[in-house]
Amino acid sequence: MSIMTLFLQWLDRNVLDLGRQMRISYVPPLMVYLAAGVSGLTGIVGTFFVKESLGLSAEFLAALGFWAMLPWALKMPMGHLVDLLWRYKAGLVYLGAALIAASLLVMIKLLGDVEYMRHLWPVESWFVLSALLAPVGYVIQDIVADAMTVEAVRRFDDEGRPLPEPQILAAHTTMQTLGRVSIIGGSLLVAGVNVAFFSGVDTMGAAEKAAVYLSIYRWALWIPVISVLGVALASYLRSQEEWRLAAQGFEFEDIERITAAGAHEAPAVNWPLLVGGLGFTLFAVVMGLGGFSNSEEIVFIGSLAIVLFLMWRLTMDLEIKTRNQLYGTAFVIFAFRAVPTTGAGETWWMIDDLGFDQQFISKLSLISSALTLLGMFLFRRFMAERPITYIIAALTIALTVLYLPNIALYYGLHHWTAALTGGVVDARFIALVDTALESPLGQIAMIPMLAWIAHSAPKQLKATYFAVMAAFVNLALSLSQLLTKWLNQGFEITREVRDAATGQIVTPADYSELGWLLIVVMGLSFMMPVAAIVFAKRTLLREQG
Questions:
Q1: I need a labelling partner for 98 at 20 to 30 A (CA). Which of 164, 187, 388, 510 fits?
Q2: Which residues contact 203 (CB under 8 A, 6 or more apart)?
Q3: What global pTM score does this model have?
């Protein structure tokens, strides 16, 4: 059998087969996910805006990252609210779109007329407001999209007969895979756009760069439009399906059953969940605005306690083996996603010492998104046929090995390789290769978990169920930001900050402690998931072997 034949068989099995399983009903939630992926369009601009225009420390940015992640941890009451208001899901997506647009408009005004904005409020405060508005909008849209994925998978055939459970689970896996593909596809699209926008950035003056930044944020206003079009399409498709069934002679009750319209009947209001969620939200806001010490830690512990309690309540009716499998899977993924990062300091060092400009960072993002998308096809069968502990263990080992080039770059590996190869294997070459190897591994762990949640979600509590389970996993990212903040307190990294009026250096650049920070992050990135796997295999997942 030739190599070409083997490749074509692989292509058919892993890529074309996914396309064959695509259904028009999947498109509306995929459009909302696409909007989330496209949200990265402004990421690089935000990084350089902070570095060039704001005097915010790496520790402060890590703390801001925690508060920006908090709305994702508060998905539980919001998810239940979506179930209660499911008939008005379009309005919720519109609300999310409005918050996203408001965040973008704040940044557009900052870039276009900073003096006017500074007159009203400090620039740093406007930036923080923008950074906090967008996540709330994306969370609202994500909750609706998650629930729409449950609804998008058919449970009945064209004749109204129930489909086999294995076929439904396979459809959920396909739906969740396509959801990740849509998000990464959006990231790939914006990375390519950024590469084009930042062409020749190394020769631009400050005014020209500002014009490019402003143009990118204006184009980003299409992001909320994409999600709004998604729910509009969902309404149209439902109407068409109802008319088709009515034309075939189905009664109103049968149409509701087949189209899952009955799932739109609001469940009983869970007042403890809603009131408790509202109370905790107010508590988190007070802690955040009150300037209390250790406010992030207190809010995180409270969020974790609430989520764990709700997980226990929602899974009480599951069989013990099934419940333990869910707990063990969620715990392992939590530990994998909770590993800290180096924070903004490493990016600043790459910009200052390695000379990575906006366009090169855009190229890294483009490569990462493209290969992540490819990796999801490459490892599709691997995800479906291996237990989650095996997947996380393999990813942890691979990512730890691939972290070594970051450390080697800090200690000057690129000087030696460039001298040895006549300048070919320089810092940029090493970064490109490392990104190419590392990027396909990023999204793999989440797909099996999401498919399992979607398959087991009760139809009238699909948003609540998804929100609670996803909130637990998303809390891991909040813990990651907390750990990052603590590490940045222990290893102080500063970039050069100049006074806007005089041009004098206020804070000098100091990356002397970055090397040890990189080493500690790599060690924690290995030890935390491995320890979680060992614990889960000996307790919750012991029966799974």
A1: 187
A2: none
A3: 0.71
